[in-house]
Every structure is written in C-alpha cells, then in structure tokens.
Amino acid sequence: MSKLASFYGLVGLGSLCLVFLFFNQRYGSPMKHRIQPILAVGRSWEDFETTPEPYEFEEPVSNAAVVKEADDSVATLNEIQQVLNLQRRMIRDDMIGYQYPNGRYNKSAKRLEDLVMEKNGKPIRSVIITTWRSGSTFLGDVLTAHPGVFYHYEPLLDFDIVQIRGPPLASQALRNLKALLNCEYEDLDHYIQFGRGHSWLLNHNSPLWKQCQSHRRICYNHRFLSGMCKLFPFQSMKLVRLRLRVAQQLLADEKLAVRLILLVRDPRGTLQSRKHRSFCRESPDCSDPSLLCADMVSDYNAAVELQRKYPSTFRVIRYEDLAVEPYKHVEELFKFYGLDFHPSVKRFLDTHTKNDVGGVSSTYRNSKAAPFHWRADLEFEEVEEIQRNCVVAMKHWGYVHAINASHQREFNPITDYVLRL
Ligand SMILES: *[C@@H]1O[C@H](CO)[C@@H](O)[C@H](O)[C@H]1NC(C)=O
Ligand SMILES: *[C@@H]1O[C@H](CO)[C@@H](O)[C@H](O)[C@H]1NC(C)=O
Questions:
Q1: Which ligand has the minimum distance to the alpha carbon of residue 380?
Q2: Which of 235, 245, 250 is closest to 174 using CA atoms?
Q3: Is the CB of 404 under 6 A from ligand 2?
Q4: Are 302 and 244 in contact (CB under 8 A)?
Q5: 312, 314, 333, 335: which to mutate for ligand 1, most atoms within 8 A of CB?
Q6: Atom of ligand 1 nearest to the CA of 311
Q7: CATH superfamily label, 111-178+233-408
Q8: pLDDT in tens, 128-185
Q9: Of 275, 259, 255, 258, whose CA–CA distance to 267 is shortest?
Q10: Domain Sulfotransferase spans what residues (predicted)?
C-alpha cells in the first residue's frame, strides 16, 4: 500500500514538474515572445543603445608625466609609425572612387589630402547633440558606416552622469571637445586614463579599436591617438551630456567649421528606455522628467536662434522621423554634411532598417515601431506623469498627448507637423 502510494506520489510529482516546465517554457519570459521591431536579423534599434554607460568611478589617474616619458621609447615610436603607415594606406584604398565635394555644399575639397589634418587639410566635422537614450547611437553608427570616419563616441563620458548646461563644467568640456576635434590628445590625460578602464570610450571607433586590439601597448598613447585621428577625412562626434546653449560655441568656431545636429526624441520614449538602465536611476539629470523636459525647452529656444544664425551648418532632427523614413533623412543628412552617399552607408541602412515580417502595409507597425515602444511598455499613469512635466517641451517638438490607456496603445504620437523653428 505504502509502495503504491509512493509510486503515485512520484508520478504526481513528475507530472507537476512537467507541467511547470511546459508553462515556464511557454510563458516564463513574456519579453521573448513580444514581437520585436526587427531591423536586421537579430538586431533592433534599441540594441544600438545597449552599451553600458559608466557610473563606476574612474581608476586613480596614474602619474601622467611618468606615463608620457615611458611612452617615448624608440620601440613605441616605431610601432606607432608602423600602424599609422598601415592605416594611411587603408584609408587611401577605402577612399578610391569617392566623390569629393569639389565646390558643392560650400566645400572646396577635391582630393583626400584636402580633408586630412596631417596634410594640413580640413576634415568634415560632424557633431550630434542629444541626450541619453534618444536614438543617437543609431545615427552615430549610420555616419560611421563610412570608412573614412574617425568617431569620437561620447567624449564626455569621464564627466559622469550629468548634464552640462553652463559653468563650471562647460569650459572644461568645451576645451576637451575642441582638442578632440583638432586631434590634440596631448592634454587629455583624464580622458585617456578613463578610456583605459572603460573600453566603450574607444571601441565604437572601429578603425581605431581594430588597431588597439593588435597593438595594446600604444592604444592609450596620446601620440598614437593624435596620429590616427589626423589621418581621417571625416571627424564625427556624438554628445549626450552637453546642452545646445553650450554646444553652440562649437558652431561659432569658424576654424573648426563643424556641422551640428540636434537630435530630439519624444520624452516618453526616452524615459521608458532609461527606466531599464541602472546608471540612470542614481542621477536626477537622467531620471527626472522635469529636468529632461526643461532641457528640451532650453534646446528648443537655442535651436530657434541657431537655425537663423547658422542655416547651413545647424540642423534639427527628430528620432521618430529618422526611424520612420531612414533613407530619406539619412540622404538629406549626408547632403547637409557634404558627404558622398557611400555604398557602405546604403549597405548599413539595407541591413539595419529592412524588415521582411508582414509585408508592405505592416512595415510601419513593425520596423518603424521601435521609437514607439513606450506606448505598450509604460503604464498610462507613468505617461501622464511625464506629460504633466512636459507640456511645453512636447508642444515645441510636436508630440501629441495620450488621453487614456486605450488611446495610448493606438494613437500616433507624432504630428505631421514640420518643425518650424
Ligand atoms: C555657403 O556659405 C554661405 C556663407 O557662409 C552661406 O550663406 C550659404 O548659405 C552656404 N550655402 C550652402 C549650400 O551651404
Ligand atoms: C479614450 O479616449 C478616446 C479618444 O478621446 C475616446 O474615444 C475613448 O472613448 C476613451 N476611452 C476611455 C475608456 O475613456
């Protein structure tokens, strides 16, 4: 009897386990089963922003003078020279067939040397101003799809999770940015030391990172970094910590001749995306809707002025517009920069924005839906809270309020409105 009982007991337990396993497999992780807005096989727009942002404190900065001296050894200088020679040849090969502006877009460059700093040329410089989780990684990656690009990825990482709106941080930040845009790494010890402990400072710059991986010894040598930087005809920079009021000083610098883009995103999308980032929670600049939207209002007011003052070197774009019509906007942006629409850029768009799921009519809902995730992922109460804090910002930038929970899931949050600054 007791044998029979334990037999049935075991069978019962076994079936329970099976049932549990079955349900766990099926429903255990609902995230996996949600339809993802797939852009490329296995890659979504959001993937572009999954790089961890720093919140660790940097390692103690080692005695910079000692580092510099040690870096001057003949072996090191030789190794640097060899890598630079190799990279110079690679860039020359990549640029074969490139359509130089040759007078178009207000750019006189006729050949590679005209754009290369080591030959006293003037590179094409792009700066993107935005904030955390606003789709900028995608835009940055589109631009770096071009082989001649040296990418200064978020060069203010070592300032921690803060927004720089003015003094006292603004002057140091601008000094660093101008040094980088001029490829002058000599006085950037803090930046370089930060990079040693945080690989994502440099690893978005793929030509640089490739060399770093096979030449670790010279990767953080300021001579190497300056030398590499000066070989590239296009300098691209993305910033999430600097507000437009401060950044306009880059535009004002005629020698730099930067083209500057302000990239804007719906605050509901930005905040939804930030919710899942632990680096963000600790800092009000990152997590507080009223601060985000005050920045959006301040950026708007600055943008109105800059549009008038610098009509050919300043531009605004909304992430949602870019996502819905990537080819149209990327092509316009390349014209704005005076860049040839290189085949590798088209290839990048082909592989990162095409979606075969669902045919033509569903394209909008699938591959173009990434910026609108928040409609399903946020509770209406959270949306209301953001909207309360963002009335002016949303009006300026053309974002529509959700009225109730069901409306939120269905509506189109962007108006057809054309930004009139
Ligand atoms: C070219 O530069 C001039 C003066 O800097 C400016 O007025 C003009 O709008 C620019 N044109 C283009 C196409 O960028
Ligand atoms: C939500 O708002 C929409 C649009 O105003 C309205 O048509 C709908 O009846 C509302 N639904 C509820 C449940 O209140």
A1: 2
A2: 250
A3: yes
A4: yes
A5: 312
A6: 9
A7: P-loop containing nucleotide triphosphate hydrolases (3.40.50.300)
A8: 999 999 988 778 777 777 779 999 999 999 999 999 999 999 999 999 999 999 999 9
A9: 275
A10: 125-397
> What's the sign of the alpha-carbon dihedral 358, 364, 368, 373?
negative
Task: Choose the residue to mutate in 384, 400, 401, 407 for probing ligand 2, maximizing ligand atoms within 8 Å of C-beta.
Answer: 407
Residue ranges per domain, the chain?
Answer: 1-25, 31-94, 111-178+233-408, 184-229
The owner of tokens 């930046």 is 191
Cα of 311 vs centre of ligand 1, distance in Å, is 8
Q: Which of 383, 384, 406 to mutate to test the pocket of ligand 2 (most atoms within 8 A of CB)?
A: 406
CB-CB contact of 372 with 269 (8 Å): yes
* CB of 415 closer than 6 angstroms to any ligand 1 atom: no
Which single residue is written with the structure tokens 């720089």?
164
Task: Tokens 């930067």: give the residue.
Answer: 258
Where does 265-375 show beta strands of DSSP type E?
A: 314-318
- Check pLDDT > 50 for residue 102: yes
Q: Cα separation of 368 and 355, whole Å? A: 9
CB atoms within 10 A of CB 89: 11
Give the number of other CB atoms < 10 A from CB of residue 164.
22
Counting from 1 in the atom list of ligand 1, the atom nearest the Cα of 312 is 14
